[in-house]
Specification:
The chain has 234 residues and is mainly α. It is built from ten helices and two strands. The termini are far apart. The relative contact order is 0.12.
Length: 234
């Protein structure tokens, strides 16, 4: 009888991570650390802020009379920021500005994160995308839109616009993600008129990448909702 010899093969060695992949990972880590550090930094930078101009417009109109929550403010559909102010007023009154400030700061940080994701999705390398997003994250000249509470309306428009671009990137047919993106679009309409240029860019991109059928899926309901609001309240 011959004795069979069992030969076992050694497990394959794990594939080494390529240099570009390592660079992308480190760029993502650096950006994540910057976003975490930016939250207390921005709140500290705005510690001396108080209610100002449009803040008072939102505070002195409870939405129960005229103008109501759907009425425009300087041509903007501002329902979202009006509801935000009303909720904070019921919870905190005018004792502190910080709760009113937190939403705009968080919206700005979220927009910076989504901006990096959008640039990465288009093929931009990690460190370049990080550099661009960091410039946006700590863009000193834009501090008004980062720290004044009422600017949650415009910063919210940027956040919703970038979210739509990410959610709606897919096949040439309508998917569940498109329904979620459509919901984000409805919320975006209620932030400010800044959202409209995002919709135009989104429409052109969708037509080129996914075709006319998907474009109609977005354009028909969003266009109808905005037109109805504009005719009735705008």
């Amino acid at each position: 009888m011959t004795q069979a010899t069992l030969v076992t093969e050694a497990p394959p060695a794990p594939a080494e991570v390529s240099a570009p992949a390592r660079a992308d990972r480190w760029s993502a880590r650096v950006f994540a650390a910057a976003v975490v550090a930016a939250l207390p930094l921005l709140l500290w930078s705005g510690r001396d802020h108080w209610f100002f101009l449009d803040d008072w417009w939102a505070l002195t109109r409870d939405g129960l009379g005229s103008p109501g929550y759907l009425d425009d403010h300087n041509g903007h559909w501002s329902t979202l920021v009006r509801l935000d102010f009303r909720l904070n007023f019921e919870l905190w009154g005018l004792s502190t500005y910080l709760p009113y400030q937190v939403p705009v700061v968080l919206a700005h940080l979220g927009a910076a994160v989504l901006l990096r994701q959008v640039t990465r999705r288009t093929g931009v390398r990690g460190w370049i995308a990080t550099a661009a997003a960091l410039a946006f994250l700590l863009f000193g000249s834009g501090r008004e839109n980062m720290l004044f509470a009422f600017q949650f309306s415009q910063t919210g428009s940027v956040l919703c616009g970038l979210a739509m671009f990410l959610l709606a990137d897919g096949a040439r047919s309508v998917t569940r993600r498109d329904w979620l993106a459509l919901g984000v679009g409805v919320v975006g309409l209620m932030t400010s008129g800044i959202f409209l240029p995002f919709l135009v860019g989104f429409g052109v991109t969708t037509l080129l990448r996914r075709g006319g059928r998907v474009l109609v899926f977005y354009a028909l309901p969003l266009g109808s909702i905005f037109a109805a609001w504009y005719l009735a309240y705008g």
